[in-house]
């Protein structure tokens, strides 16, 4: 059952929180944001605190207490103690808990989506889609839990072997700020389905919904300690990586941070899953359905204010159609509505922070210095007076880009599309692969033979044909090269949250050679 504070959270949210000031004062925001052993925990008041801001207005929502080494140790110890009993439950019963959690999220989708928008500044309609994805993910692994098993391996002379797929133990998750609850779900659901316990550190910019997920899991019947949340920055993440009782780290974020996490985990020989950055190519051939390709390019660049790791930010357009394509693209991009994230008609919400907005502006200016032309956007705007303290960026289309520009090579993480021209298939494939990243990529063409040929040659983990940025829960997601190690989603994720034990059974007398 939920704690009293948890019930108050949900009762407040169930009023729909149409008034923003009311939403900012609800217990989900104002009550403690660290979640240990089944409840929100108020830490010692002497602990360091940081302000949590609403990206659209800059208003401070609350002061968040940062977990200390002792708090991380408490969370990990609680997870270790709870894991043994959880792993001994049948996969079917673990799956039932996850399925109930998915149902609870769906029943409260609007309320939790509003918290996600308050956390991230993304449009409310996007947050709703994210919450549906979270519920689907948890339900998917709830259904898969009962089937997690090894194999029977017949050998010669009536002997046989079998394998057992067992939990790793305590899994530490570290999330980024663009999809807070989705990352908590993508990591915790397969971990829990396999019989692991879980300690999650959200981004310090977006801490709210990971705690609500803990209360949802508790209501669904998850034993206390199996899911915990510790808040903080890189120091808290480092504590998780170096903790002796943590068996695996699953991280989503930048390549430099991922490299440090991998180094830290190597010292303890821990398992890792790393979903890192990207600079993905989107290739648009001249035989494409043009309007559909324009839609795809916008999906590949402007969702969540461009703050998506898999975005196809290098848009290669075949020479014959580039003029018409850009005319259509710019016309539609200029029509995008920038404004109140809680307005259903808004298509561009707030950039996550002042620091991130400044980074995007620097890259726009640098691109112009290197010869790119700004066809639209690339400026900071204030949609209404009440949003003057927030960060809103107009979606930007850059033409006349070339492969050596910083904006083409670096991951910017903003609504910033770089358009490049190409002539032939072999050329564009070589240019598309000329990057240290390999997270995603896309192809728009009516020629399915070409689509299969090109995708077979692109060095990336997730590829799209005549669409972009779709994440079905049953399809693995992850990168090549510096874009990561391991996979999330789909049945493949199970192998990254389990270890295999082999058992050999001898049916005959042992014939020793000595």
Descriptors:
about 525 residues; alpha/beta; Aldehyde Dehydrogenase, Chain A, domain 2; 2 domains; six-stranded mixed beta sheet; disordered N terminus
Walkthrough of the structure:
The chain is α/β, with parallel strands linked by helices and 514 residues long. It folds into two domains: 4-276 and 486-498, Aldehyde Dehydrogenase, Chain A, domain 1 (3-Layer(aba) Sandwich), CATH 3.40.605; 281-465, Aldehyde Dehydrogenase, Chain A, domain 2 (3-Layer(aba) Sandwich). 39% of the residues lie in helices and 19% in strands. Strands 14-17-18-13-12-19-20 form a seven-stranded mixed sheet, with helices on both faces. The protein has a six-stranded mixed sheet with strand order 9-8-7-10-11-21, with helices on both faces. Helix 5 packs antiparallel against helix 7 and helix 5 (91-107) crosses helix 9 (208-220). It is globular.
Task: Look up the CATH topology of the largest domain.
Answer: Aldehyde Dehydrogenase, Chain A, domain 1
Could you estimate the helical fraction of the residues in percent?
A: 25-40%
CATH-wise, what's the superfamily of the largest domain?
Aldehyde Dehydrogenase, Chain A, domain 1
Sum up the overall morphology in one term.
globular
Sheet with most strands: strand arrangement? 14-17-18-13-12-19-20
CATH class of the largest domain: Alpha Beta
Task: Kindly give the count of domains.
Answer: 2
Q: Estimate the mean pLDDT confidence.
A: 94
Number of helices: 17
Cα-atom Rg, whole angstroms?
24 Å
């Amino acid at each position: 059952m939920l704690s009293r504070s948890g019930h108050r959270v949900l009762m407040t949210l169930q009023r729909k929180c149409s008034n923003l000031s009311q939403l900012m004062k609800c217990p989900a925001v104002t009550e403690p944001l660290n979640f240990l052993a089944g409840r929100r925990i108020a830490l010692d008041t002497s602990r360091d605190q940081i302000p949590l801001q609403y990206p659209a207005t800059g208003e401070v929502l609350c002061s968040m207490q940062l977990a200390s080494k002792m708090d991380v140790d408490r969370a990990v110890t609680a997870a270790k103690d709870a894991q043994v009993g959880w792993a001994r439950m049948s996969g079917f019963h673990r799956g039932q808990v996850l399925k109930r959690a998915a149902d609870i999220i769906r029943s409260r989708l609007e309320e939790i989506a509003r918290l996600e928008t308050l956390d991230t500044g993304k449009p409310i309609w996007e947050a709703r889609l994210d919450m549906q994805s979270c519920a689907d993910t948890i339900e998917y692994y709830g259904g898969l839990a009962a089937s997690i098993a090894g194999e029977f391996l017949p050998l010669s002379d009536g002997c046989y072997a079998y394998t057992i797929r067992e939990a790793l133990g305590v899994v530490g998750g570290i999330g980024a700020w663009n999809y807070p609850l989705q990352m908590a779900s993508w990591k915790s659901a397969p971990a829990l389905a396999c019989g692991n316990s879980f300690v999650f550190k959200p981004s310090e910019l977006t801490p709210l919904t990971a705690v609500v997920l803990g209360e949802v899991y508790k209501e669904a019947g998850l034993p206390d300690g199996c899911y915990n949340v510790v808040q903080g920055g890189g120091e808290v993440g480092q504590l998780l990586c170096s903790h002796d009782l943590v068996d695996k780290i699953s991280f989503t974020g930048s390549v430099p941070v991922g490299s440090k996490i991998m180094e830290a985990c190597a010292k303890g020989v821990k398992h890792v899953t790393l979903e890192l950055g990207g600079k993905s190519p989107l290739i648009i051939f001249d035989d494409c359905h043009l309007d559909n390709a324009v839609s795809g390019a916008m999906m590949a660049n402007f969702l969540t204010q461009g703050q998506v790791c898999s975005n196809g930010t290098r848009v290669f357009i075949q020479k014959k159609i580039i003029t018409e394509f850009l005319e259509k693209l710019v016309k539609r991009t200029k029509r995008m509505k920038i404004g109140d994230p809680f307005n259903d008609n808004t298509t561009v919400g707030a950039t996550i922070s002042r620091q991130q907005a400044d980074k995007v502006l620097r890259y726009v200016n640098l691109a112009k210095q290197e010869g790119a032309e700004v066809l639209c956007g690339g400026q900071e705007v204030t949609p209404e007076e009440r949003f003057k303290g927030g960060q809103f960026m107009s979606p930007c289309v850059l033409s006349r880009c070339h492969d050596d520009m910083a904006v083409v090579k670096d991951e910017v993480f903003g609504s910033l599309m770089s358009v490049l021209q190409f002539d032939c298939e072999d050329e564009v494939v070589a240019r598309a692969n000329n990057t240290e990243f390999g997270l995603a990529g896309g192809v728009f063409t009516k020629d399915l033979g070409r689509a299969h040929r090109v995708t077979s040659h692109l060095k990336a983990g997730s590829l799209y044909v005549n669409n972009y940025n779709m994440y079905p829960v049953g399809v693995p997601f992850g990168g090549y090269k510096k874009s990561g190690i391991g996979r999330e989603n789909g049945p493949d994720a199970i192998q990254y949250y389990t270890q295999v034990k082999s058992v050999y059974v001898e049916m005959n007398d042992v014939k020793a050679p000595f």
